[in-house]
User: What shape does this take?
Amino acid sequence: MKIGIDMMGGDFAPKEAVKALNLYLSEVTTPANLFLIGDQEQIVPLLKEEGHDPERFAIVHAPQVIEMNEHPTKALKEKQQSSIAVGFHLLASGKIDAFISAGNTGAMLVGTMYSIKAIDGVLRPTISTIIPKLNGKTGLLLDVGINADCKPENLQQFGVLGSLYAQHILGIPNPRVALVNIGEEEGKGNLLAQAAYPLLKETPSINFVGNVEGRDIFIDKADVMVCEGFTGNVILKMAESIYEIAKERQISDDYLHRFNFESYGGVPVLGVSRPVIIGHGISNATAFKNMFLLAEKMFNTQLLDKIKESFQTASPE
Amino acid sequence: MKIGIDMMGGDFAPKEAVKALNLYLSEVTTPANLFLIGDQEQIVPLLKEEGHDPERFAIVHAPQVIEMNEHPTKALKEKQQSSIAVGFHLLASGKIDAFISAGNTGAMLVGTMYSIKAIDGVLRPTISTIIPKLNGKTGLLLDVGINADCKPENLQQFGVLGSLYAQHILGIPNPRVALVNIGEEEGKGNLLAQAAYPLLKETPSINFVGNVEGRDIFIDKADVMVCEGFTGNVILKMAESIYEIAKERQISDDYLHRFNFESYGGVPVLGVSRPVIIGHGISNATAFKNMFLLAEKMFNTQLLDKIKESFQTASPE
Assistant: This one.
């Protein structure tokens, strides 16, 4: 498999991305072909510094960089030679099988939507986050921000996408899917939640277990939790702040340390036809390495084919 | 002033409510007249047990109890002799100045809306919660659950109500009001947040400081944070769960202990013409005492008159 990496994306680029290569290569037995996309005049000396033969990699020169604060659509249009634009070009033309970046999130999302198609039947691609559960397990929450306003059908599809991801990537058999809500019983919630509940309940391909409330987010009541991107984004950022609180209060606790989202790597855009993984701006070498491994796992488990199949079956005759 | 207390409400009723009387009477110099509403055959012996002269209080016999799991509207209608129904009757007829209960929250809300009018100009009464800030200060978040679907105008009014409450009850001069959102800049968010931002910005009676994100909830970026009741309820219950996590992980930390919402007492319904305070089902004696003190403070600071004035000025000529 061929993984494209935006070497210029993230606060510590390209240094941490280069360091990640060592971590990755020492961890896997049959590494993927790595396409390093970025300014070769910066990348090549760094590779040598870290003891790599630059010939070992496919270096794709992209002299421009989209900065973190640039307007996504404008920047992508004007900086055709940027690492993100070049990466999507390679991905769309099939020259790479997955694209990873810790750069401008907006540009990554715009690039995904315009360069890579949504899978047939998927109304709205989505991004998710890992949620550390108090009992040691791991949950998935989606959408966490790209779909701030949703229709009930979107939440239903997030349930299907999240369920497939939990099953094949997180290794959770028959994942329990729940709706984030403000009460336990069916019929509770805002108009969206009230309408989404019966749709989720009637979706045969998922194991819907009902509502979860704010108090259940960190409890192992469900594996996949769905909501619109407004609530999801607030939950994600509150969860991230728990780690900040622990740091500030100098609390050393294994569970609270799992809220260090920097180390998880990135989040995949789910529902699009090729693997795109978006990293946190502050991604370190471990985070980059985890993104390489995630891209590989998405490829090897044929997650996208499984999503395609699922949405094919579900579409009206 | 005359405070009515539902002695039968809450998981530990009437014991904890009776205990709270001692705490309250030993703390204040000129106590309010306390109207104890409930089953006098249960209350009187308990009062004697705790060393009180029952004659000291106005005991209002209410032999029925609305249980925690009963349907609010149905129960209120059918149990006219319940402590909640009797309490609202006393409040509506002016026989008490404030009503406190840790009973069935739904019944308290229904009772409030039907017995006590919204203040002229207030579109939707609201409930708020205290948010402990990492730097030791205290914030206010509203709505936390009675308005799951909101219009932009509702959020604007929550800003005004929250600001007055923060000023007069929490003692925060010129409180900073913020909109809970998923980005920093104006224009970010879902359709509701996008429409509410300019309304809040143009409200002269509040000190609007822009958006706060999930990561800012516990940070001292704003004193009053407004959102619709869906997001607010999820935030509140997540915050409550932080205390549960600390307990489970046996983390002893002063800040995390401030997430023990049981001890705060209750939340007032804001925007209605008389003080109604709703306690947590698990309210202990301290929580009850804090509710008595809050009722007193709302009365003494003339908060409701200030809210009335504010909405009078704001209404169109």
In short: Chain B is about 40% helix and 15% strand. Chain B has a mean pLDDT of 94. Residues 249 and 307 of chain B are 43 Å apart (CA to CA).
